[in-house]
Amino acid sequence: MTTTDRITLYYAPQSRATGARVLLEELGAPYDLQVLNMKAGEQRKPAYLAINPLGKVPAVHHRGALVTEQVAIFIYLADLFPQAGLTPALDDARRGPYLRWIAYYGSSFEPALIDRFMKREPAPVTQSPYADFDTMLGALESQLARGPYLFGGQITAADILWGIALNWTMMFGLVPRTDVFVRYAERIAARPAFQRISAADDEIAAAHAAAAGV
């Protein structure tokens, strides 16, 4: 890749953007960080809202194009570096299920999680994007129970997405700590890329807290 091909990741530590940065590390991708101090509200200031009007991270800028939405970012980055082996090829039988489980994160898991976090009564099952919380989570657990990864023995970008998500949501008590979820999340958290970014996040978060006088 040339200098102009470097990826810019708009980032905040200990947020959903962590997964995107771990994925970049797993892919061996050349990237630059644009760190936002969320404690100072930088994600809601005009400079960043001009990039992403929703004020969310992660966002990726590459080759003059902006990619937002976590699932889109994972698909885009993994496809950009097929040599890393984290994305099934278009003619791979796993390609459809791979896309299914990445999309499932954004379309079913996240809405269910937010409803639970906010203690909101979910919509009736016929109108809910995720049926009901237990059904949504049970489908995921059944898939992961086949192990060690979503599609057997070979890790994909989808596993980075889900492993980090489960690690965080179990930590905050939003997802039950079943044996299947715990073993899976621990497997992803033990990877060197996750360990490196977790330590780097701690340093950035501490610096932001110090700047805020916390």
How would you explain this protein's 3D organization?
The protein has eight helices and four strands, in the order E-H-E-H-E-E-H-H-H-H-H-H. The protein is an alpha+beta fold. It has a four-stranded mixed β-sheet with strand order 2-1-3-4, covered by helices on one side. It has helices spanning 17-27, 46-49, 70-80, 95-117, 133-144, 157-171, 179-189, 192-211; strands at 7-11, 31-35, 59-62, 65-68. Helix 3 runs antiparallel to helix 4 (95-117) and helix 6 crosses helix 7 (179-189). The chain has two domains: 3-85, Glutaredoxin (3-Layer(aba) Sandwich), CATH 3.40.30; 95-192, Glutathione S-transferase Yfyf (Class Pi), Chain A, domain 2, CATH 1.20.1050.
Which labels suit this protein?
single chain, alpha+beta, 4-stranded mixed β-sheet, 4 strands, 50% helix
Q: How do you describe this structure in short?
A:
By secondary structure, the protein is of the alpha+beta class.
Mean pLDDT: 95
Helix-and-strand structural type = alpha+beta
**Residue runs with pLDDT of under 50 for 5 or more positions:** none
Mind summarizing the main beta sheet? 4 strands, mixed
The Cα radius of gyration reads: 17 Å
Query: Strand-and-helix sequence, N→C?
Result: EHEHEEHHHHHH
Q: Give the CATH level 1 class of the largest domain.
A: Mainly Alpha
CATH topology of the largest domain: Glutathione S-transferase Yfyf (Class Pi), Chain A, domain 2
Percent range for β-strand residues: 5-15%
- Summed up, the domain count is 2
What is the secondary structure topology, with strand pairs?
Layout: E1 7-11, H1 17-27, E2 31-35, H2 46-49, E3 59-62, E4 65-68, H3 70-80, H4 95-117, H5 133-144, H6 157-171, H7 179-189, H8 192-211
Domain GST N-terminal: 4-85
Pfam families: GST_C_2, GST_N
InterPro entries: Glutathione-S-Trfase_C_sf (IPR036282), Glutathione_S-Trfase (IPR040079), Glutathione_S-Trfase_N (IPR004045), Thioredoxin-like_sf (IPR036249)
